[in-house]
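User: Show me a protein chain along with its predicted structure.
Assistant: Here is one chain, sequence first, then structure tokens.
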Amino acid sequence: MSSLIFNSFLDDLARGLIDMDTDTFKIMLVASAYTADKDAHLKRSAVTNEVTGAGYTAGGIAITCTVAKDTATDRVTLTFSSVNWPTATITARGGVIYKNRGGLASADELVAYADFLADVTSTGATFTVTFSSPITFQN
């Protein structure tokens, strides 16, 4: 599988349900058994096989999004910050970014799935997720 943008994210943006500048976002880690479905998965409640282990809390951690508009190239980019789980003992295959509403998983809108392309393990060490490229919208 490869990284993807959930189709519901684009719909939620167009309808004003997600504001990348002001909303709170989180990233949760998932095991290799999770198969992201960009058409069918709409909310965090659809995400299965979240990792468990020392140093990891269910639901993941906050992640920052920076929005940049470039009128010279007619594009907007969404760049996500790196995140760390210090002293974690976990194995993850990917991460799911979602809008955190602070309540039920059935209310949290999905944004994107980042595939690590292989299982990544940390044993009592810092587990870091760094994004190599932004989400880009170009006109």
